[in-house]
Amino acid sequence: MSKLVIVGTIAFDAIETPFGKTDKILGGAATFIGLAASQFNTDAALVSIVGGDFPESYLNLLRSKNLNLDGVEIVPDGKTFFWSGKYHLDMNSRDTLVTELNTLADFNPVVPQEYRDAKIVMLGNLHPMVQLSVIQQMSTRPDLVILDTMNFWMDSALDDLMTVIKEIDVITINDEEARQLTGEYSLVVAARKIRAMGPKYVVIKKGEHGALLFNNEEIFFAPALPLEEVFDPTGAGDTFAGGFAGYLAQAQEINFDVMKQAVIYGSCLASFCVEKFGTERMQDLPKEEIKQRLEQFKKLTHFKI
Amino acid sequence: MSKLVIVGTIAFDAIETPFGKTDKILGGAATFIGLAASQFNTDAALVSIVGGDFPESYLNLLRSKNLNLDGVEIVPDGKTFFWSGKYHLDMNSRDTLVTELNTLADFNPVVPQEYRDAKIVMLGNLHPMVQLSVIQQMSTRPDLVILDTMNFWMDSALDDLMTVIKEIDVITINDEEARQLTGEYSLVVAARKIRAMGPKYVVIKKGEHGALLFNNEEIFFAPALPLEEVFDPTGAGDTFAGGFAGYLAQAQEINFDVMKQAVIYGSCLASFCVEKFGTERMQDLPKEEIKQRLEQFKKLTHFKI
């Protein structure tokens, strides 16, 4: 089984949407990425940090999905990263109410020895220098290093971000961030400029408007599934990344057709994620439902002319 | 050849975009719809009104595309409808600078006798009562009545709009308007509510984010082609409608698969429209280029899983 290293936050989230409100529940980029990737036949390890307040039951949930947690540092007298946010009525924008970095402030990810030859490395959104340190720990060059980032690092650590971007193969970024990073409004032009910074593949996430995959002059578009109701968008982008990375980890080879499939799997899993609060929908998602939804994606987009 | 009746404005447009500025050029919904529909093997008639200031050369351009102009009233001492707008940097929003209704204020469309048995009627954006009067002139019920409208009529003539919506088969509307008309944020729910108002098919246009087609529980999504540069979005929605209606006019039968193809043709033609100012790109568009672009749409969206 191919190895997949997933680096990112494991967190407590408290979420408020027009549909309801949660107390502190399981969240974090690595959590969502891991749960999505666990749908595929791959040997995935999470690299993250939590505090002594993090419930054993959450760790057991992740373990039950065959996610290796040797790289998850537990700081007994520390507190787990906490994020709280409130979504606006349109669910496309949100206000961050609380960000407590806690143990995350001192996060120095250590990739377990037996995962340093992993085929795929998925770097969740973190400080670019933390992301870079993971790449440098690998004993062999992974087939693919995938990086997720956000505008916060463009504002506060652009030089570092540009340094790590040089070293990666795939970047996942949202449309506004792609525009901010390049100063280009056209996503076609923005993707070309980002590819010139390093990554061969650029995935631009447009939330409810789908995702675009760029490579050389090839473009692929995956819609988001039109849903009756988006209950909670938290983790949708990370779930997309997890489905994308998980699919690629178990693929026989990497080419544009396989990347297209990975984008569809990512979109498919993200469409489940938003149906319930936090990780609820992803904790117990039958393969049969995924298969049915992939068919829905096909019906939604395919035509004969 | 199947007959297609196109009702809407023929206008002068003056457009300002970040790329440049035009004097009064050829514009109007019926113009864009007609030019797009003229790409198909159909007998199309425009029903509209212009003033004595409207150049014979523009009329000849439309005639040269085999568009019947018997239903275009020319008011010798009147002035042609004039619209002027300025697009913002993102090209998704615009300010209307000038709207001079002129002859349009007294527009009473008269469908020429020989087109009153048309297979398809495409009602461009106009006062709902003007749209209704066209339906009432038809001697036989058309296979499809397609209606385009906008938020302006929801604000100022909602009851009239609801009256005409009852009588139609297909509505094309943008996402914000669908939300305004139904009070629903989810486009899936909004489309269902609109179908309950009358039309069997609902097409929701999302501009650069593509278009959705709804019928019963079936959904189809056509992306907008990602472009290097959107030069001028004026007329893109009408060009979409014209491609959609033109394709349906020459189709052997109407079913969901054919509707899907019509949406793709509409999206394809709209992707050309935005490449130049006004109608420039649509005035002389080789069939070979359309064919190539349809292949691009296929490559953009099709995948194997």
Give a quick precis of the structure:
The structure is a homodimer of 305-residue chains. The first copy, chain A, is α/β, with parallel strands linked by helices.
Give the uncertain stretches of chain A in residue-range form: none
Distinct helical segment count of chain A: 10
Fraction of residues in helix of chain A: 25-40%
Q: What class, by secondary structure content of chain A?
A: alpha/beta
Named at the architecture level, the CATH assignment of chain A is 3-Layer(aba) Sandwich
CATH class of chain A: Alpha Beta
Write up this protein:
The structure is a homodimer of 305-residue chains. The first copy, chain A, is α/β, with parallel strands linked by helices and 305 residues long. Chain A has a single domain, classed as UDP-N-acetylmuramoyl-L-alanine:D-glutamate ligase (3-Layer(aba) Sandwich). Helices cover 35% and strands 25% of the residues of chain A. Chain A is built from 10 helices and 14 strands. In chain A, the strands form 2 sheets. Chain A has a 9-stranded mixed beta sheet with strand order 6-5-1-9-10-11-12-13-14, with helices on both faces. In chain A, strands 2, 3, 4, 7 and 8 form a 5-stranded mixed beta sheet that branches. In chain A, β13 (211-215) and β14 (218-222) form a beta hairpin. Chain A is globular. The termini of chain A are far apart. The mean pLDDT of chain A is 96. Chain A binds chain B through residues 89-91, 185-189, 206, 209-210, 212, 218-223, 226-230, 257, 260-261, 264-265, 294, 298-305, and chain B through 89-91, 185-189, 206, 209-210, 212, 218-223, 226-230, 257, 260-261, 264-265, 294, 298-305.
